[in-house]
From TrEMBL, chains A, B:
Gene3D superfamilies the UniProt entry points to: Tetracycline Repressor, domain 2
Pfam families, per the entry: TetR_C_6 (PF13977), TetR_N (PF00440)
Residues covered by the HTH tetR-type domain: 8-68
Chain residues forming the annotated DNA-binding region: 31-50
InterPro entries for this protein: BetI_C, Homeodomain-like_sf, HTH-type_TetR-like_transc_reg, HTH_TetR, Tet_transcr_reg_TetR-rel_C_sf
Entry keyword Transcription: yes
Protein name in UniProt: TetR family transcriptional regulator
Key words of the record: DNA-binding, Repressor, Transcription, Transcription regulation
GO MF term set: DNA-binding transcription factor activity; transcription cis-regulatory region binding
Keyword Protein biosynthesis (UniProt): no
Amino acid sequence: MPKIVNHQKRKEQLAEAAWRVIRREGLEGLSVRRVADEAGMSLGSLRHYFDTHAELLAFSMRLVSQRVNERIEQLPFTGDARRDIEMIIAQLLPLDEQRLAEAELWLAFAGKAISDPAIRKMSLEMHDELYNGFRRMIDSLILNKLAKDGIDAEQETKELHALVDGLAVHRATFPERVREDDLMRIVSHHLNRLFKN
Amino acid sequence: MPKIVNHQKRKEQLAEAAWRVIRREGLEGLSVRRVADEAGMSLGSLRHYFDTHAELLAFSMRLVSQRVNERIEQLPFTGDARRDIEMIIAQLLPLDEQRLAEAELWLAFAGKAISDPAIRKMSLEMHDELYNGFRRMIDSLILNKLAKDGIDAEQETKELHALVDGLAVHRATFPERVREDDLMRIVSHHLNRLFKN
């Protein structure tokens, strides 16, 4: 493996160790020392990849979005707008262990975004990326004349975005209250109302 | 003022000082010493009201729900189901400084609920209380034959609950992205779909 690839791969392994620390102990449990321990690496070796706590945190947060985007790019799109939209949204909801981890991390970041300006800035990037994704879905429904007449793309996007994030928070935090099969059933029911009959 | 009332009032003032610390510094910034400082009280005096950090935190979390409930009980209900439901939901969304504080606190608690069992337990109580409130709204629509035929009360409740919490998170965290007047417009648009035409 070329050295540059190995370097990137090692950074991702350290970010995944950071994810485990955050999920177990919350964001305030995160320190470069804890992550080095979690990854079975010396603090000196970790410093070869991340100079500061802030760099490690920023990389770990961005890797969450990157993993979601990679999965979405690899989806077997069908050209059927309804099925394609449901496939994308399913990648954003905690429907397996990987997606549960992402939802828990997103919630930990959101919970600190108000009191921590650096986390807020990165959370806003994630928020905007998601918003833009939902907006493209709604715009494609309108463009392809699949949406009910007269729908307001901006309002519908904000509603769908809030619904999906709210469902992810509820399922990640209270799995005994919101079942896994509730998630796509509720999303699908919501989409029914946007599509022409 | 009788001593017992004074005692309760002082506890609420300390909880409000705890809210300010949590909003400014996050939940991990909370300590009995920080709250005593914030309230301009000695640590010894604070201990007269709360023995432990856990007691102070539990009281502060429960006071959030209690304040929301008090406001809802005092609403000038009209008997018009649509207007009454919108009035209640408006009390749950960050539409003024008090409600913004509540949304920020709720988000800070939710962000720690996954990694902290005590916070999780109290967050679940808040979640259930809200769920039950939304369920009563949906049930009353069905009972009064105002809802569209064939709606599933449990699924509709979960959807409305996720939508309102998602909107509260978005507005509290990214006020530059979700405007204040988006909130009730989106809720009202969603309710339109539940009501018979």
